[in-house]
C-alpha cells in the first residue's frame, strides 16, 4: 500500500456558494435568500457526517455577479454578498478542525468588465499598455464593423463586443467577462500573486476555471467550422476533432508548470484540479503531467450514455490516460454547469435508481470522486420559470441554461425556503419547487432508504473497503452488465432492462433493493471476492 497525497483518492463535494446555505444576517436578522460563507460554515458538520474529504467552493470574490461569481472584479477579496475575508478564515479554520480540506475556484481566463484593469483599458484607449492586458483588436470590413474573427461565445452570439472608440474585445463567455491576454507577462505575474494570497490564507487547493483557455492562437485566426461527417458509421469509429484555435494551445502548459512550483513551495500537499474540456483523453492528460496540475475533471465519465459497454470503455480509457501521466483519475457525474444526472438518466424513479447505481460504481473506482451539492438528496433538474432564470446564456440565447441545477438546497421544513435561510415564507434567489418537502436533509435523515442515507453508507463503505487500495482495476461489459474488479471486490451494474442473476460473493452494499437473489435493472452492487475465490469479509463498520 503506497501512501498517496490526500487528493489522490479524495471525495470532494462541490459547494455552489449561492445555493448551499444562507447564513449571513441582513438588517432584519434574516438572510437575503442568497447562500454565503457563514452559511457554508454552519453546515460543515453536515459535510463531515456525509463522509466527504474536501469541499470545493465556487467563486466568492468581489463580483458584479453577471455569471454568478465567474466574473471577478477583485481576486483577493470576498464579495460583501458572501461575507468578508474573516468569514473565509473562519470557514477554513472550522473545516480543518473537522478534518475537511478546502479547494477554492480560480478564474484566470477572464476578468469581470468591472475589474480595475478592464476599466483602465477602456479609459486608456487603443494602443495603450492597459488595453494590452486584454485582447482588443480592430474589426474587419468597411470601418471595422465586423468582429475581428468568426469565433462564437460559449454563451451564444459572437465572442467579440465593440467599444465606443471602435475597437473590439474578445470574450469567450459573456460580454461582461473580457478574456485576458496571457501573452502579456503582467497577467501571469498577477495570478501568481493571487495564488499566493489564498495559499497564505490556508486554502488546500484550487479548481482552475476554463484551464484549457488562457492562451489563444497567437494570430487569433478564424476557426475552421466543424464539418458534418459524411456517414454516421464513420463518425462512430473515428471521432471528428474540431478546429479550436481558442482552446488548448500548447503555451498554456507553461502556466501550470509555474503554478506547480508555487504550490509545491507550500507545506501540506496543496493541489489544483483543472476544468479542461479538451477533446481527447490524451490532451486532458497533458494538464496533469508531473510538473503541471494534480488532477483534471474527467468529463468523459459525465457524458457516458447508459450502457455497460460505454461505461467499461470510459473506465478503461480514463485509467490508461492518467496512468500515462502518472496521476490518478477523477470521476464526476454532475456540476453547476450540466443537467443533474438523475434527470439525464431519464428522471423519475428510473433516473434516480440509475443515478444511485452510477454513484456506487464511481465510488469504487480508483482516484478521486467529485460530488455536486444536492446529488446526495437525489435532486433533479428543476424547470425554472422563465421570469426567474438568471444564467447569462439564457439572456444571450433564449435557451433555459443552467439555473435548473442551481436551485438552493432544501434543508428542513415543508415549504420554501426549506431551511435554506432568508425570511420565513420567502423564496431564495432561484425559487424552489413546492414539492420538495420529502427531499429535505431533515426528512431524508429520518429515512434509512433515502438517497442521503444511501450516500452516507456508500461513502463509509468506500473508506472501509478501498482506502489506500492500489490494485489494478479491470472493467468489462458482459452483455448488459458492467463488471469492475478492484481490490478483491467485484462491482456489478445492471445497465439492461431485465433482472440478472446476482453473481457470487458477499454483498457489501447495493444501490437499491436486491429482491430474491437477483440484480434488478438500474442497480449496482459491490460483492466481496478474493483471487482465490474466497469471499472478502465485510468491512467492520456497519454499512
Ligand atoms: C466555467 C464555469 C462556468 C462559467 C464559465 C465561465 O465553465 O464552470 O460556470 O460560466 O467557466 O467562467
Ligand atoms: Ca446571504
UniProtKB/TrEMBL annotation:
Domain Glycosyl hydrolase family 13 catalytic: 14-406
GO molecular function: hydrolase activity
InterPro entries tied to this protein: GH13_cat_dom
Record's keyword terms, sorted: Hydrolase
PANTHER family tied to this protein: ALPHA-AMYLASE FAMILY MEMBER, NEUTRAL AND BASIC AMINO ACID TRANSPORT PROTEIN RBAT
Protein's name in the database: Glycoside hydrolase family 13 protein
Organism: Nocardioides daeguensis
Amino acid at each position: 500500500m503506497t501512501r498517496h497525497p490526500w487528493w489522490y483518492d479524495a471525495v470532494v463535494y462541490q459547494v455552489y456558494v449561492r445555493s448551499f446555505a444562507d447564513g449571513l444576517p441582513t438588517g432584519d436578522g434574516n438572510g437575503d435568500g442568497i447562500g454565503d460563507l457563514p452559511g457554508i460554515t454552519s453546515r460543515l458538520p453536515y459535510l463531515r457526517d456525509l463522509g466527504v474529504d474536501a469541499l470545493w467552493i465556487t467563486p466568492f470574490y468581489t463580483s458584479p455577479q453577471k455569471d454568478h461569481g465567474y466574473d471577478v472584479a477583485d481576486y483577493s477579496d470576498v464579495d460583501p454578498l458572501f461575507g468578508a475575508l474573516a468569514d473565509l478564515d473562519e470557514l477554513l479554520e472550522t473545516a480543518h478542525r473537522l478534518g475537511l480540506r478546502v479547494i477554492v475556484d480560480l478564474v484566470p481566463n477572464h476578468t469581470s468588465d468591472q475589474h480595475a484593469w478592464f476599466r483602465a483599458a477602456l479609459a486608456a484607449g487603443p494602443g495603450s499598455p492597459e488595453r494590452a492586458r486584454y485582447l482588443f483588436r480592430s474589426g474587419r470590413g468597411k470601418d471595422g464593423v465586423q468582429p475581428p474573427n468568426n469565433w462564437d461565445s460559449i454563451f451564444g452570439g459572437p465572442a467579440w463586443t465593440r467599444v465606443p472608440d471602435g475597437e473590439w474585445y474578445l470574450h469567450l463567455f459573456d460580454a461582461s467577462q473580457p478574456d485576458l491576454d496571457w501573452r502579456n507577462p503582467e497577467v501571469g505575474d498577477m495570478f501568481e500573486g493571487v495564488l499566493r494570497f489564498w495559499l497564505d490564507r490556508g486554502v488546500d487547493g484550487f479548481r482552475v476555471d476554463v484551464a484549457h483557455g488562457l492562451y489563444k492562437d497567437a494570430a487569433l485566426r478564424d476557426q475552421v467550422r466543424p464539418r458534418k461527417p459524411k456517414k454516421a458509421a464513420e463518425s462512430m469509429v473515428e471521432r471528428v476533432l474540431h478546429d479550436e484555435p481558442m482552446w488548448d494551445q500548447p503555451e498554456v502548459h507553461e502556466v501550470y508548470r509555474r503554478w506547480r512550483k508555487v504550490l509545491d513551495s507550500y507545506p501540506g500537499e496543496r493541489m489544483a484540479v483543472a476544468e479542461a474540456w479538451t477533446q481527447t483523453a490524451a490532451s486532458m492528460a497533458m494538464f496533469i503531467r508531473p510538473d503541471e496540475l494534480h488532477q483534471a475533471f474527467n468529463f468523459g465519465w459525465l457524458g457516458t450514455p447508459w450502457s455497460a459497454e460505454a461505461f467499461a470503455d470510459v473506465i478503461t480509457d480514463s485509467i490508461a490516460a492518467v496512468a500515462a501521466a502518472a496521476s490518478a483519475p477523477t470521476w464526476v457525474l454532475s456540476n453547476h454547469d450540466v443537467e443533474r444526472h438523475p434527470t439525464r438518466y431519464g428522471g423519475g424513479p428510473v433516473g434516480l435508481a440509475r443515478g444511485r447505481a452510477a454513484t456506487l460504481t464511481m465510488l469504487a473506482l480508483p482516484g478521486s470522486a467529485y460530488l455536486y451539492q444536492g446529488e446526495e438528496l437525489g435532486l433533479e433538474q428543476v424547470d425554472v420559470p422563465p421570469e426567474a432564470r438568471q444564467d447569462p446564456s439564457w439572456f444571450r440565447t433564449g435557451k433555459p441554461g443552467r439555473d435548473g441545477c442551481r436551485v438552493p438546497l432544501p434543508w428542513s421544513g415543508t415549504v420554501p425556503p426549506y431551511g435554506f435561510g432568508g425570511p420565513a415564507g420567502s423564496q431564495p434567489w432561484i425559487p424552489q419547487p413546492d414539492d420538495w418537502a420529502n427531499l429535505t436533509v431533515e426528512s431524508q435523515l429520518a429515512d434509512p432508504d433515502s438517497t442521503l442515507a444511501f450516500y452516507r453508507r456508500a461513502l463509509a463503505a468506500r473508506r472501509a473497503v478501498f482506502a489506500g487500495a492500489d490494485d489494478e482495476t479491470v472493467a468489462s461489459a458482459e452483455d448488459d452488465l458492467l463488471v469492475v474488479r478492484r481490490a478483491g471486490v467485484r462491482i456489478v451494474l445492471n445497465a439492461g432492462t431485465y433482472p440478472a442473476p446476482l453473481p457470487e460473493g458477499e454483498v457489501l452494499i447495493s444501490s437499491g433493493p436486491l429482491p430474491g437473489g437477483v440484480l434488478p435493472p438500474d442497480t449496482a452492487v459491490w460483492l466481496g471476492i478474493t483471487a482465490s475465490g474466497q469471499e472478502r469479509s465485510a468491512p467492520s463498520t456497519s454499512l
